[in-house]
């Protein structure tokens, strides 16, 4: 490849820029690589192919000297000697992970709201209103539901479904149905007392998205193939705190 071609390619890459933080599946264009700088990982290349996301952690080039101008060094990108000493500050996406453990026991219904605020209920509510103080919580920032794990005392064979709901300010949760913002389904076949993990952050939703707006009342309802009985649930959130 000649010098001019290399410069043109790298100019396009520079114009596109390198973003911070892991991308969501929906942010990637099929077949088009994207570069992200991930804290504690460094530079990572992502590409989506057949709706599956692949990633590759890139290694720092120890042989090329840093340049102050992309035109110098035949279009080389400016190099960094290592991760920034301080990734916290304005104009930087900072993230916080929040894992909420919740447990319930239900032998009559397969659809149950996860008790995200109370962490435990004897009989989990399967309707929108009535158990507000047990099942709903206020989202502190904008964020995403990344993963849900559950373990049940009974086996399950069929469709597992998770639905994310919200109430915004001024909406009465006692008399009004919430807005569904995302729905995720998969087929499972697991024995009793087995932990099953659903990586919602990398799934294609049946509808909506795993995104959560800030300052809203949030609830998640899970529908299991069988009445779940004694159930343990763990929900992992990723919050954008600045």
Write up this protein.
The protein is mostly beta strands and 242 residues long. The protein folds into 2 domains: 1-81, no CATH class; 97-240, Jelly Rolls (Sandwich). The chain is 7% helix and 42% strand. The chain contains 2 helices and 16 strands. The strands form 3 sheets. Strands 5, 7, 9, 12, 14 and 16 form a 6-stranded mixed β-sheet that branches. Strands 6, 8, 10, 11, 13 and 15 form a 6-stranded antiparallel β-sheet that branches. Strand 2 (34-38) and strand 3 form a beta hairpin.
Strand content: 35-45%
Determine the structural class based on helices, strands and strand pairing: mainly beta
Distance between the termini: 42 Å
Give the number of DSSP strands: 16
Count of helical segments? Answer: 2
What global shape is seen? globular
CATH topology of the largest domain: Jelly Rolls
**Domains, number:** 2
Using only C-alpha atoms, the radius of gyration works out to: 22 Å
Assigned CATH class of the largest domain? Mainly Beta
Average of the residue pLDDT scores: 82
Measured as a percent range, the helix fraction is: under 10%
Give a quick rundown of the structure:
Helix content is 7%, strand content 42%. The chain is mainly beta.
Question: Which SSEs are present, and which pair or pack?
Answer:
Blueprint: H1 3-16, E1 19-20, E2 34-38, E3 42-49, E4 52-57, E5 95-106, E6 111-113, E7 120-121, H2 132-135, E8 137-138, E9 142-152, E10 156-167, E11 179-190, E12 196-198, E13 207-208, E14 211-212, E15 217-223, E16 229-240
Parallel strand pairs: 1-2, 5-7
Antiparallel strand pairs: 2-3, 3-4, 5-16, 6-15, 8-15, 9-12, 9-14, 9-16, 10-11, 10-15, 11-13
């Amino acid at each position: 490849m000649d010098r001019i071609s290399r410069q043109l390619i790298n100019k396009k890459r520079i114009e596109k820029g390198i973003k911070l933080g892991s991308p969501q599946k929906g942010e990637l264009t099929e077949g088009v690589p994207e570069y992200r700088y991930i804290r504690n990982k460094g530079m990572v290349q992502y590409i989506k192919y057949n709706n599956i996301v692949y990633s590759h952690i890139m290694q720092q080039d120890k042989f090329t000297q840093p340049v102050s101008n992309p035109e110098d060094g035949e279009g080389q990108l400016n190099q960094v000697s290592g991760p920034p000493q301080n990734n916290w500050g304005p104009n930087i996406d900072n993230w916080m992970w929040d894992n909420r453990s919740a447990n319930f026991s239900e032998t009559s219904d397969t659809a149950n709201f996860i008790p995200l605020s109370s962490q435990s209920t004897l009989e989990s509510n399967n309707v929108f209103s009535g158990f507000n103080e047990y099942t709903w919580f206020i989202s502190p920032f904008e964020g995403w539901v990344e993963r849900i794990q559950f373990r049940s005392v009974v086996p399950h064979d069929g469709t597992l479904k998770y639905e994310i709901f919200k109430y915004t300010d001024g909406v009465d949760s006692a008399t009004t149905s919430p807005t569904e913002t995302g729905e995720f389904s998969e087929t499972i076949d697991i024995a009793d007392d087995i932990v099953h993990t659903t990586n919602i952050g990398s799934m294609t939703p049946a509808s909506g998205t795993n995104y959560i707006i800030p300052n809203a009342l949030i609830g998640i309802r899970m529908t299991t193939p069988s009445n779940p009985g004694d159930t343990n649930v763990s929900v992992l959130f990723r919050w954008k705190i600045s």
